[in-house]
Design a protein that fits this description.
The complex is a heterodimer of chains A (about 250) and B (about 325). By secondary structure, chain A is mostly helical. Chain A has ten helices and no strands. The longest helix of chain A is centred in the last third of the chain and has 31 residues. The radius of gyration of chain B is 22 Å and the shape is globular. By secondary structure, chain B is an alpha/beta fold. Chain B contains 14 helices and 13 strands. Classes of the chains: A mainly alpha (about 250), B alpha/beta (about 325). Chains A and B meet through α7 and α8 of A and α2 and α4 of B. The complex binds adenosine-5'-diphosphate and magnesium ion. The site of adenosine-5'-diphosphate has 10 residues of chain B, from α1.
C-alpha cells in the first residue's frame, strides 16, 4: 500500500518537471515586455529595448507550429522509411538509407535553406523543408538502430509462434524499439527548435525574428529575448520527452 | 505424425539437409543429435516452415505442410528454442498466452490456460505471472518457454536445444520434468540437441545426423549396442559407452528379490529406480560387490550383486 502511494507521488513529481518549465516559459512571455529597465542595461544605446513587431506569445506559437509540423512529417517519413528498408522487400535500400542518415547530419541546415529558396521561394515552406530534412536524420538513425538491435531469437520466436509479419512489427518490433525511436525523435525535435530560428533569415515567422532583428540593428536586448524564449521552449519540450520516455522503461 | 520424405534444403550450392527421410509417430519423442552445423535446426525449422524446404515432401498428419497457411501451421505446432526467445516487454503470463491470443481465445479461457500451464511447469502463479522475463533465472525462463510452446495444446512440439544454455543441475531437472510431462501429455516431439547424454535420456528414438544426412536412427539402447560407425561411436562417448548403457537400465530390472537375512543387510543401499550406472558407482565407492535395494520409503526390497549387474537374461 505504502509502495503504491509513493509510486503515485513519484509520477506526480516527474509530471511536475514539464509543468514547471511550462510555467517558467509562460512567466517569461508575460515578464519580458515589462522588463524594459532590465534590458535597458543590456542595450543602453538602443531606442527601443523590447522587441515589439510581434507578441512573444505569437512568436512562440508560430515557432512551435513550424517545428511541430516539420517533426510530424519527419517522424512519419523517417520511421516509415526505416521500417520499409528493414523488411525483406526493401532490404536493397537499407545501405543507402543508412548512409544518408549518417551523412546527412553533417550537412548544415543553412545550406538546405539557401538551396531551397530558389525552388520554394521565401517564407515558411523552405524552412519547413530544411527542418524536415534535418530532423529526419536522427529519427532514421535511431529507428534503424532500434529495429536492428532486437534479439533475432525473439523475432524467430515471434514468427515461430505464428505471428503474421504485421503482428511481429506492431506487437514485438515497434514496442521493443520504441525507446530508441523516441530518443531519436527527441533529439530531432530539440535540434529543430533551435534550428527553426534560422527560418527568420528567409522570412518565416519564428523566435529567430528578434534575434535577426537584434543582429542587424546591433541590439543585444532583442537577441537575448529571442534566445531566452528558444532555450525555455527547448527545455520545456525536452522535459516532455523525458517524461514520455519513462513510459517505456 | 510427422513425415519427411527425401527432404533437401539448399542454401546456395550448399546442402544443409540432404535427402532426409524420417517418420515420427504420434506420441513419439524423437531426438535429432549431431555436431554443430550438421543441419538439425534447419530440419526442425522446415517442419514449421520458418525455412522452406527445397526438395522432397513434409507431411503433418498426412497433409502436406505447404497446403497450410504458414501462420496457421505454426499456431498448431509448439516451438521452444535455446535462448527462449521470450518477449522481453511482456510479462510471464502474457508470454505464455501468446498463441491462444493469436488464436483469439476469449480472455477467461486464456487466463485459465495460463494458470494451468504455470502449475504444470511448477511456476507459482502468484509469484511469477506478472514478472518480466528479465526477472527470471535461466531455468525459470526456459520453463516459461516450454509453457508458451504448450499453450494452445498443440499435438506437435518442436524444441531446438531448449536446455542448451542451462547449468548442468538445472538442465537435468528440466529434462526430468519434460519426461514427466511427456508421459502425461503424449505429444509428438522433435527435439534437437548436440548432447548425446541428453538424447539418450529423453529419446524414444534417436536420429544421428552428420552433414545434413541421417547416419543412424534407433532407440537409445539400439545405438549403444550397435553404433553404425566410428562417428556414432565417438558421439556415444567411446569408452564411456558401457557406463552410458548402464545409465539407461533401472536397478529394479536386474535386482534379485530374495532379501538377505536382516543381520546381513548391507549398509550400502541403492534405490530401485536408480540406474545400474549409479549402482556401479556405489559399489566402487563402498568397495563392495553387493548392494541392498530399497524402495522410496527406504525399505529393503531386494539385492543387487556385481554379478547381477554384469549378466542378465533380459535386455
Ligand atoms: N539462413 C541460412 N543461410 C545460409 N546458410 C545457412 C542458413 N541457416 C543455416 N545455414 C547453414 O546450414 C548448415 C546447418 O545449420 P543448422 O541447421 O543451423 O545446424 P545445427 O542446428 O545442426 O547446428 C550450416 O552450415 C549453416 O551455416
Ligand atoms: Mg542449431
Amino acid at each position: 500500500m505504502r509502495l503504491q502511494v509513493s509510486r503515485v507521488s513519484n509520477s506526480a513529481r516527474h509530471a511536475a518537471v514539464p509543468l514547471g518549465w511550462l510555467l517558467v516559459l509562460g512567466l517569461a512571455i508575460a515578464w519580458l515586455p515589462e522588463a524594459e529597465a532590465w534590458f535597458r542595461q543590456v542595450a543602453p544605446n538602443s531606442r527601443s529595448v523590447i522587441y515589439q513587431r510581434d507578441g512573444f506569445l505569437d512568436l512562440v506559437l508560430q515557432h512551435l507550429r513550424l517545428v511541430g509540423a516539420a517533426s510530424l512529417v519527419a517522424v512519419v517519413v523517417g520511421v516509415g522509411a526505416s521500417i520499409l528498408v528493414t523488411r525483406p522487400l526493401g532490404q536493397d535500400f537499407l545501405p543507402l538509407v543508412a548512409q544518408l542518415a549518417s551523412m546527412g547530419q553533417t550537412f548544415p541546415p543553412v545550406a538546405v535553406l539557401a538551396l531551397s529558396v530558389p525552388m520554394l521561394g521565401f517564407g515558411t515552406q523552405p524552412t519547413l523543408l530544411a527542418l524536415v530534412l534535418y530532423g529526419l536524420l536522427p529519427i532514421v538513425r535511431n529507428t534503424l538502430v532500434g529495429l536492428q538491435g532486437i534479439d533475432p531469437t525473439v523475432l524467430e520466436a515471434a514468427r515461430g509462434m505464428g505471428m503474421s509479419n504485421r503482428q511481429v512489427l506492431w506487437q514485438v518490433e515497434l514496442p521493443l524499439a520504441a525507446r530508441v525511436i523516441l530518443a531519436g525523435i527527441r533529439t530531432s525535435v530539440t535540434i529543430n527548435i533551435a534550428t527553426a530560428a534560422i527560418g527568420s533569415t528567409i522570412g518565416a515567422k519564428t523566435l529567430g525574428d528578434p534575434i535577426i532583428a537584434g543582429i542587424s540593428n546591433g541590439n543585444n536586448a532583442y537577441i537575448l529575448q529571442g534566445a531566452i524564449l528558444i532555450a525555455l521552449l527547448a527545455l520545456f519540450i525536452d522535459s516532455l520527452f523525458e517524461r514520455l520516455s519513462r513510459l517505456f522503461q | 505424425m510427422i513425415e519427411l520424405r527425401n527432404v533437401t534444403k539448399r542454401f546456395g550450392d550448399e546442402r544443409a539437409v540432404n535427402d532426409f527421410s524420417l517418420t515420427v509417430e504420434d506420441g513419439e519423442f524423437c531426438v535429432l543429435v549431431g555436431t554443430s552445423g550438421c543441419g538439425k535446426s534447419t530440419t526442425l525449422r522446415m517442419i514449421n516452415r520458418l525455412i522452406e524446404h527445397s526438395d522432397g515432401q513434409i507431411l503433418i498428419d498426412r497433409q502436406q505442410i505447404r497446403s497450410f497457411n504458414p501462420q496457421a501451421l505454426r499456431r498448431r505446432i509448439g516451438y521452444a528454442i535455446q535462448s527462449t526467445g521470450l518477449f522481453p516487454h511482456w510479462s510471464v503470463a502474457r508470454n505464455i498466452g501468446t498463441v491462444p491470443r493469436l488464436l483469439k481465445w476469449d480472455k477467461p479461457r486464456i487466463e485459465a490456460r495460463v494458470r494451468e500451464l504455470m502449475e504444470l511447469l511448477g511456476l507459482d502463479h502468484d509469484n511469477f505471472a506478472e514478472r518480466m522475463p528479465s526477472q527470471l533465472s535461466g531455468g525459470q525462463a526456459q520453463r516459461v518457454g516450454v509453457a508458451r510452446a504448450l499453450a494452445a495444446d498443440p499435438d506437435t512440439l518442436l524444441m531446438d536445444e531448449p536446455f542448451g544454455a542451462l547449468d548442468p543441475i538445472t538442465r537435468v531437472n528440466l529434462q526430468e520434468e519434460l519426461l514427466r510431462l511427456q508421459s502425461r501429455l503424449k505429444k509428438t516431439i522433435v527435439f534437437v540437441t548436440h548432447d548425446m547424454d541428453e538424447a539418450l535420456k529423453l529419446a524414444d528414438r534417436i536420429v544421428v545426423m552428420d552433414a545434413g544426412r541421417i547416419v543412424q536412427q534407433g532407440t537409445p539402447s539400439d545405438l549403444l549396442s550397435a553404433p553404425a560407425n566410428a562417428f556414432v561411436e565417438s558421439l556415444l562417448g567411446g569408452a564411456d559407452r558401457g557406463l552410458k548403457q548402464a545409465g539407461l537400465i533401472r536397478v529394479s530390472s536386474r535386482m534379485r528379490t530374495d532379501l538377505p537375512a536382516p543381520q546381513a543387510v548391507d549398509p550400502a543401499t541403492v534405490a530401485a529406480d536408480d540406474t545400474l550406472r549409479v549402482a556401479l558407482s556405489l559399489m566402487l565407492w563402498h568397495r563392495c560387490d553387493t548392494l541392498t535395494v530399497v524402495d522410496r520409503s527406504n525399505t529393503p526390497v531386494g539385492q543387487l550383486s556385481l554379478r547381477d549387474l554384469l549378466h542378465s537374461g533380459s535386455s
